[in-house]
């Protein structure tokens, strides 16, 4: 993603991409602010749409540094494979962040998402249990 200028539309597009990245819950806004090189107090108004960043180069550099594979932005070191029990029924894989505990699919606020009971990492929200399971396993 390259920006030639620094127009209002380009700044809004960069903030929208950052908002979408954070919505997937792979990183907190404070962690993203640290990697972008701004204070969290600066980043939060950007995300709320109250102010626009003066320069989008740091946001674009941050988003370009995040690994992108099929299915969207995912943590580094992720390997995509099927996780099934002995009957062939899909099951949640281990957490891609802490790699300590197997994920659980829970219904929260009317939607399903994968959650790590060890570190609290969450996967993307989906409408059904099966879609959330596929998203947690990296297939959805």
Topology, please?
Blueprint: H1 8-23, H2 29-36, H3 40-48, H4 57-65, E1 68-69, E2 72-73, E3 104-108, E4 111-115, H5 129-137
Antiparallel strand pairs: 1-2, 3-4
**CATH class wording of the largest domain:** Mainly Alpha
> What is the H/E string?
HHHHEEEEH
Main sheet properties = 2 strands, antiparallel
Distance between the termini: 24 Å
What value does the Rg take, in angstroms?
Answer: 17 Å
Count of extended strands: 4
Record the strand order, biggest sheet: 1-2
Q: Helix/strand/pairing class, anyone?
A: alpha+beta
- The CATH architecture assignment of the largest domain turns out to be Orthogonal Bundle
The average pLDDT score comes to 77
Shape descriptor reads elongated
CATH topology of the largest domain: 434 Repressor (Amino-terminal Domain)
Explain this structure to me?
It is a single chain. The chain has 140 residues and is α+β, with helices and mostly antiparallel strands. It has 2 domains: 8-70, 434 Repressor (Amino-terminal Domain) (Orthogonal Bundle); 82-140, no CATH class. The chain is built from 5 helices and 4 strands. Strand 3 (104-108) and strand 4 form a beta hairpin. The radius of gyration is 17 Å and the shape is elongated.
Keyword list:
two-stranded antiparallel ribbon, 140 residues, 5 helices, 4 strands, two-stranded antiparallel sheet, 434 Repressor (Amino-terminal Domain), alpha+beta
């Amino acid at each position: 993603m390259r920006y030639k200028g620094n127009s209002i539309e380009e700044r809004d597009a960069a903030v929208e991409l950052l908002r979408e990245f954070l919505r997937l819950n792979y990183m907190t806004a404070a962690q993203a602010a640290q990697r972008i090189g701004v204070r969290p107090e600066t980043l939060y108004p950007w995300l709320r749409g109250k102010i626009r960043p003066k320069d989008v180069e740091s946001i674009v550099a941050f988003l370009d540094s995040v690994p992108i594979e099929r299915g969207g932005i995912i943590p580094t070191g992720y390997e995509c494979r099927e996780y099934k029990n002995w009957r062939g029924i899909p099951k949640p894989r281990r957490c891609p962040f802490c790699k300590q505990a197997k994920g659980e699919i829970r219904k929260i606020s009317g939607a399903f998402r994968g959650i790590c009971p060890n570190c609290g990492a969450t996967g993307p929200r989906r409408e059904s249990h099966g879609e959330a399971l596929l998203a947690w396993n990296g297939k959805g």
